[in-house]
Specification:
This protein has helices at about 15-45, 50-60, 75-90, 90-110, 115-125, 145, 240-275, 285-315, 320-345, 355-365, 370-385; strands at about 65, 70, 130-135, 150-155, 155-170, 175-180, 190-195, 200-205, 215-225, 275, 280. The chain folds into three domains: about 10-125, Butyryl-Coa Dehydrogenase, subunit A, domain 1; about 130-230, Butyryl-CoA Dehydrogenase, subunit A, domain 2 (Beta Barrel), CATH 2.40.110.10; about 240-385, Butyryl-CoA Dehydrogenase, subunit A, domain 3 (Up-down Bundle), CATH 1.20.140. With about 400 residues, it is α+β, with helices and mostly antiparallel strands. It has eleven helices and eleven strands. The strands form three sheets. Strands 3, 4, 5, 6, 7, 8 and 9 form a seven-stranded mixed sheet that branches. Strands 1-2 form a two-stranded antiparallel ribbon. This is Acyl-CoA dehydrogenase. It holds the Pfam family Acyl-CoA_dh_1. It comes from Kribbella capetownensis. Its cofactor is FAD.
């Protein structure tokens, strides 16, 4: 058997045949539909809505959820699909992660049966797009204790006030899950705010250097009134928020692997085609050293993520497991895209060679869903039994 230069340890053979076929369909979607248009959208900082029918046809939205029109596949399959999407483009993977992971996950894990039936089927069909509002202009890592967005219960309504920042998909989302501090008991709770609700406004964040295709927004909530039925029934403290983040943080680790893989894949192809001194540069020792460093990073990271997904499927994954993967894989991703940029020399900064896009996008993946430092503290608390949080 010939060794795959990308999936060097053959991790996709861990999947059942139907899931492996799905993975290949996602790869084909990336090569044929994403690749031809993504650089133009990245340059213009626009979202490729023309890709949504293809994403819908893949049937990968809300991958690990059972029922409600969702695929009901394994976390391992879900993770590898996230990796494959990010290999094609990290922004498209992020869109899917925000919609299918954070937004749908909040409803699936924290919603009542009526709420799941109301929203999830149309979200699974990409007829309704979701966003997830946790981070605020002045509150990032301190969200568990310091949310400034407030919620007040008044009769049969909740009234939300505050701001959210860096909210992916928010400029065009049909509904946004907003996490706010209940002024009565000081607990973080989740609410679904539907598009065009009075007092709910979004402003696109301009001039980003990373994930330019993702439409991040500043959300302002000014006396936003929502019916009591839109308060997520099982979202009553930050512990409930954390259940969602545990699941999606693992997905971000997989996306980091995909971002690194994408840069490595393009660098490998370039090395085989680029000639200097009368032969392909892939035949030079220092170039092969860079390629092997990239391969080692992506293989180690993917192997770690595969085991994390197996723990998720067995119900044995905890916060510290997801945090270790997110911290490790994003560091290795950053290193890998740097190696790819180095291999391409000056061509590494040209979009036509793709690697520069991964270099830039890696900076966003490195930070969102918990910085390396915060994830390190979660793991550190687990292995020492001592909390080093402020």
């Amino acid at each position: 058997m010939t060794t795959d230069p990308i999936d060097f340890y053959g991790l996709e053979t861990l999947l059942e045949d139907r899931d492996r076929e799905l993975l290949h369909a996602v790869r084909d979607f990336g090569d044929k539909q994403v690749a031809p248009i993504i650089n133009e959208h990245w340059t213009r900082a626009t979202f490729p809505f023309e890709l949504l029918p293809g994403l819908r046809d893949l049937g990968i939205t809300g991958m690990p959820y059972t029922g409600y029109g969702c695929p009901g596949r394994s976390f391992l399959t879900d993770g590898m699909v996230a990796m494959e999407l990010a290999t094609a483009d990290p922004s498209i993977a992020t869109f899917n992660g925000v919609h299918g992971g954070l937004a749908m996950g909040s409803i699936y894990l924290c919603g009542s049966e009526e709420q799941k039936q109301r929203w999830l089927p149309q979200m699974a069909r990409l007829e309704t797009i979701g966003a997830f509002g946790l981070t605020e202009p002045r509150v990032g890592s301190g969200a568990s204790r310091g949310l400034q967005t407030t919620a007040r219960r008044v009769g049969d309504e909740w009234i939300l006030d505050g701001q959210k920042k860096w909210i992916g998909n928010a400029t065009f989302a049909d509904l946004t899950v907003i996490w706010a501090r209940d002024v009565e008991d000081e607990q973080v709770k989740g609410f679904v705010v539907e598009k065009d609700t009075p007092g709910f406004t979004t402003s696109k964040l301009e001039d980003k250097m990373a994930l330019r295709v993702v439409q991040n927004a500043l959300i302002t909530l000014d006396d936003v009134k929502i019916p009591a039925k839109n308060k997520l029934a099982g979202a009553n403290s930050f512990r409930d928020t954390a259940k969602v983040l545990l699941m999606t943080r693992a997905g971000v680790a997989w996306m980091a692997v995909g971002c690194a893989r994408g840069a490595y894949r393009h660098a490998l192809a370039y090395a085989k085609e680029r000639e200097q001194f009368g032969r392909p540069i892939a035949g030079f020792q220092l170039v092969q050293d860079l390629l092997v460093r990239m391969l080692a990073n992506t293989t180690a990271s993917a192997t770690l993520c595969a085991r994390l997904s197996q723990l998720q499927d067995a119900g044995l994954a905890y916060d510290e497991h997801a945090s270790l993967a997110k911290a490790f894989c994003t560091v290795r991703m950053r290193e890998t895209v740097g190696y790819a940029r180095e291999l391409l020399g000056g061509n590494g900064i040209l979009l036509e060679h793709n690697v520069g896009r991964y270099v830039a996008d890696a900076e966003a993946i490195y930070s969102y869903e918990g910085t390396r430092e915060m994830n390190t503290l979660i793991v550190g608390r687990s292995i020492t039994g001592l909390s080093a949080f402020v």
